[in-house]
Structure formats: C-alpha cells, structure tokens
Amino acid sequence: TEKPLKVAVTGAAGQIGYSLLFRLASGALTGDRPVELRLLEIEPALKTLEGVVMELDDCAFPGLAGIEIGSEAETIFDGVNLALLVGARPRGPGMERGDLLEANGAIFTAQGKALNSVAADDVRIGVTGNPANTNALIALKNAPDIPAERFSALTRLDHNRAISQLAAKTGAPVTDITKMTIWGNHSATQYPDLFRAEVGGRNAAEVVGDQEWLENTFIPTVAKRGAAIIEARGSSSAASAASATIDAARDWLYGSAAGDWVSMAVVSDGSYGVPEGLVSSFPVTTRDGDWTIVEGLEIDDFSRGRIDASTAELADERDAVTQLGLI
Ligand code: NAX
C-alpha cells in the first residue's frame, strides 16, 4: 500500500476543523491512499481537540493511518506533505483592521518559518484562515526555502457559491457550469466573473442575459454569502468551507478537470494586470501539485474595474503588513 499522505491542519479544534477532519479521514481528499493527520492548536484548545480525536477514533476509518496533536508548529509540521492553515485570529470587539493583521501576522510568520524548516520537500500549503490572501503572503515570505508557488489561499468556497447561484438562476445542474472565476481577494471586493463562465458550453453572461441581475444580485450574493450564513445560522460557514478546502486541495494534488478551470488565490506573476507578488485569485488549471494561470482571456471594461478594485485592496493589505514588519 501507498505511504500515507501527511496532512497538517491548524485550528483543528475549531468549527471548520470539526467538518474537515472527518472528510479527510474518510478519504474525500486521497481516495484509497491513507492519511496521517497532524493537528495544531493553541494550548487552551488541546483538550477540546482530544475530544475530537476520540470521535475520529470512534469512526474506525480504514484510511486513517495516525493522528498527532500538539501546540508546537515545528513538531506538528514535521514531514508534512500538505498543510491546511485554517486556524486564525477572528476579529474581536473593538479590534481595528491593523490589530487583526498584526494578530494574524504573528501566527502566519511563525507557521511560515516552521514549515520552512520541517515540512516535506513536496509540501503544498493552503490557507483558509482569514484574511486568507494576506495570511498566505505572510507565510510564504517567511518561508524563503519553499517555492512561493506552493502557497495558495482559499477562494474555492466563493467559486462554489458562484456556481451554485448560477445553477439556480439558469436551472442548469451544477455539473453543466464550467470556467467560473473568482478574481482578487477573498473579501467583499472579490469579483465572481460570469463573462468567461459557461453554462452547458454557452457563455454564462449571455445565457443569463440580465446585466442588472449580474451586477446587483449575483455579485453581491456571492460576495456577501458569508454574512448571510452568519445571519441565518448564528455562526460562520463551516461545513461548506471545509468542503471547499478539500475541493481545492484535491484538485491541486490530483488535477483539475479537462476543459475546465478552478479559482485559487496564488502569487501573481503580473498576469491580467494584477501586481506581481500579490496573492490574488485567478482562473487556474492544476496538475500533479502545480497550478498554471489560464492565459489569454479577454477582459472587458466592467471586469477590468472589478479586478482592479479587489487587487487594490490586496495591495493595501500588503502595504499594511509591510509597515508592521511582517514581510
Ligand atoms: P473557529 O474560531 O471555530 O476555529 C479557529 C481555531 O483556530 C480555534 O480552535 C483556535 O483555537 C485556533 N487557532 C487560533 N490560533 C491558532 C494558532 N496560532 N495555531 C493553531 N490554531 C489556532 O473558526 P472557524 O469557523 O473554524 O474558521 C477558521 C478560519 O477560517 C477563520 O479565520 C475564518 O474567518 C476562516 N474562513 C475562511 C473562509 C474562506 O473561504 N477562505 C470561509 C470560512 C471561514 O470564515
């Protein structure tokens, strides 16, 4: 049998962790290949995490090759092939944006350094914890020996939300929807793009044929879905975020579908006028653990404005963390 894939999950005792760990252990990412889970938490959450591990044990998952938990990143990240960085500091009452960036900066500088020294040579790192794009930027800048291409931030949940909204509008099954793109930041400025998406092979914006819906319903519904979930459920999206984290990692490691692409926030090479070095969401194809930005798409003026607005926000975040000395 194949060697287990060693997967680190941070924030493992949190809400997303409670869904993500069971999906990972059941083979949703690796199929028949076993997984070994390496779970990082802060000290006060380790007792909760022990309870989660008891439940994982109680599932008797055939593909779960081992579990290690702890609060030392250098121990937990040792030899990991995949690190899913979910744990982050949420915005507390009275916390300014600068405070939030600083609190998360402390987490992602330390985790970047730890990955740099102990992760496996083939490590891939996916950041779910918010502010995801800038946390990924901080981590990659603090891991100089790991190629920057090995880091990505999660916009797959936004991507999946966009597919679901478009399917509902057009009556098409989600499997008919291809070439969806989220551009920019995983934030309210993100741009879910219907001008390059397709419904059953036809241009999605044309199938919808309703610019008013596209601008005033579709885009804000996708961009503000997180807030709508909080409003309805009383807590933030967790199972869907875990599912998207798995989708993103699975496609990254095992490849995106032929004739389609996915959205991932990755380090910009300047494509589509996105300033080089920002971690911004693009349409990408993936294969064997590598991603490639889909090149040559025509960008209309409406889309240009939306992409520029979101990447300007990312540039501001980069300036802020540069000033804080985090990168
Ligand atoms: P929870 O607050 O339930 O869990 C976070 C966990 O992280 C806690 O158990 C906490 O103890 C742990 N943690 C904090 N600092 C840590 C550190 N230094 N090392 C290890 N663990 C640490 O949040 P949850 O709902 O699970 O969300 C986790 C993160 O995902 C948040 O930042 C959230 O904003 C973000 N999200 C990102 C999404 C995306 O699409 N990119 C969508 C869902 C979610 O909002």
UniProtKB/TrEMBL annotation:
Q: Which UniProt keywords apply?
A: NAD, Oxidoreductase, Tricarboxylic acid cycle
Which Enzyme Commission numbers does its entry carry?
Answer: 1.1.1.37
Q: Domain of life here?
A: Bacteria
Q: In what residue span(s) does the Lactate/malate dehydrogenase N-terminal domain sit? A: 6-148
Q: CDD domains, alphabetically?
A: MDH_chloroplast-like
Q: Does the keyword Oxidoreductase apply?
A: yes
Chain sites annotated for binding substrate: R91, R97, N130, R161
Q: Does the keyword Translocase apply?
A: no
Catalytic activity reported: (S)-malate + NAD(+) = oxaloacetate + NADH + H(+)
Q: Quote the record's binding site residues for NAD(+).
A: G11, A12, A13, G14, Q15, I16, G17, N104, Q111, T128, G129, N130
The record, for InterPro entries, names: L-lactate/malate_DH, Lactate/malate_DH_C, Lactate/malate_DH_N, Lactate_DH/Glyco_Ohase_4_C, Malate_DH_AS, Malate_DH_type2, NAD(P)-bd_dom_sf
Task: Indicate the residues that form the catalytic site.
Answer: H186
All copies of domain Lactate/malate dehydrogenase C-terminal, residue ranges: 155-321
Listed NCBIfam families: MalateDH-SF1, PRK05442.1
Against HAMAP family, the record matches this protein to: Malate_dehydrog_2 (MF_01517)
Give a short account of what the protein does.
Catalyzes the reversible oxidation of malate to oxaloacetate.
Q: Which family does it belong to?
A: Belongs to the LDH/MDH superfamily. MDH type 2 family.
User: What's the protein called, per UniProt?
Assistant: Malate dehydrogenase
Name the gene behind this protein.
mdh
